């Protein structure tokens, strides 16, 4: 079937290597090479430039790759609609999530989805917000949930999902932790533990520091919320984190919430997808599960639905 050959071509193009593609497809390398040769013979042109280290697409190959992705998406959509006639949801979904959502919100949702739709192959990619948005724009991901603001790119459909409360935390032994209330200005000239550039949490903390005119004595960068929490608990500095990520640490006393005066700090969580991607039945069902989770009481009480605020 031509779909099989297109799938082989797309995999080689994305892996940039015949043997890696063969491994992913459970095919022999000669079998993969034969698929590509057949495609080139049929089209009468060279689609790939081969070298010992990697494969590079020709101009014709780039054109075919873009169209092949669309064809495979449409085929997957048709297959889902056919399966729906037999009440079967199947296929594959590539879901992306920024760290806070991927580690603290999605696990329960994924477990329920997998139980209800066992025929769906669901793959999860967790990264910082910038990486996940990039994955959606390149169609490597079908759907994603991210924290923080997302630029209104013409290729993106951005749907508000929830609001997440951000708080400032310190080690329980930190001098500021014993104060009943502190002003934002009291946070100046402190050591800060921050996330890496591209993180939604980093963007929020940068905005907080700038908006309040705070100077930083010294900063330490970690590429995960877990690393930030451990550093704060060890007394290395203070940090801005989602309340969702530190609930257990606050309960057991490893961390303390600093009672900063002023309104509660909120950031928006969003569901994003590429407007040009195929909306398969499996993706639609996953979106429905996301909506159900948002409306259910299963989310922590500090996760506030945007729709509930209207």
Automatic annotation (TrEMBL):
InterPro entries: LysR_HTH_N (IPR000847), LysR_subst-bd (IPR005119), WH-like_DNA-bd_sf (IPR036388), WH_DNA-bd_sf (IPR036390). Keywords: DNA-binding, Transcription, Transcription regulation. Residues 1-58 form the HTH lysR-type domain. Belongs to the LysR transcriptional regulatory family. SUPFAM superfamilies: Periplasmic binding protein-like II, Winged helix' DNA-binding domain. This is LysR family transcriptional regulator. GO terms for molecular function: DNA-binding transcription factor activity; transcription cis-regulatory region binding. It comes from Paenibacillus lentus. Signal peptide: none annotated. It comes from the Bacteria.
């Amino acid at each position: 079937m031509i779909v099989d050959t297109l799938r082989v071509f797309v995999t080689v193009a994305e892996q940039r290597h015949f043997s890696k593609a063969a491994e992913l497809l459970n095919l022999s390398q000669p079998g993969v090479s034969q698929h590509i040769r057949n495609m080139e013979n049929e089209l009468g042109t060279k689609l790939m430039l081969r070298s010992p280290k990697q494969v590079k697409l020709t101009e014709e190959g780039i054109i075919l790759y873009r169209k092949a992705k669309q064809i495979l998406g449409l085929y997957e959509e048709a297959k889902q609609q056919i399966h729906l006639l037999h009440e079967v949801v199947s296929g594959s979904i590539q879901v992306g999530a920024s760290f806070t959502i991927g580690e603290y919100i999605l696990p329960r949702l994924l477990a329920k989805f997998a139980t209800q739709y066992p025929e769906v192959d669901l793959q999860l990619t967790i990264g910082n917000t910038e990486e996940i948005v990039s994955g959606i724009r390149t169609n490597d991901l079908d759907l994603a949930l991210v924290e923080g603001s997302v630029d209104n790119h013409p290729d993106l459909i951005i749907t508000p999902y929830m609001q997440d409360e951000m708080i400032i935390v310190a080690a329980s032994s930190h001098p500021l932790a014993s104060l009943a209330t502190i002003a934002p200005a009291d946070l100046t000239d402190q050591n800060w533990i921050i996330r890496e550039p591209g993180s939604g949490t980093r963007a929020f903390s940068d905005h907080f520091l700038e908006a309040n005119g705070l100077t930083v004595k010294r900063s330490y960068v970690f590429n995960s919320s877990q690393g930030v929490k451990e550093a704060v608990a060890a007394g290395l500095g203070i940090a801005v984190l989602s309340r969702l990520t530190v609930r257990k640490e606050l309960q057991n006393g490893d961390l303390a919430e600093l009672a900063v005066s002023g309104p509660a700090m909120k950031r928006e969580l969003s569901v994003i997808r590429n407007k040009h991607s195929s909306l398969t039945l499996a993706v639609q069902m996953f979106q429905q599960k996301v909506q159900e989770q948002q409306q259910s009481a299963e989310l922590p009480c500090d996760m506030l639905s945007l729709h509930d605020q209207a």
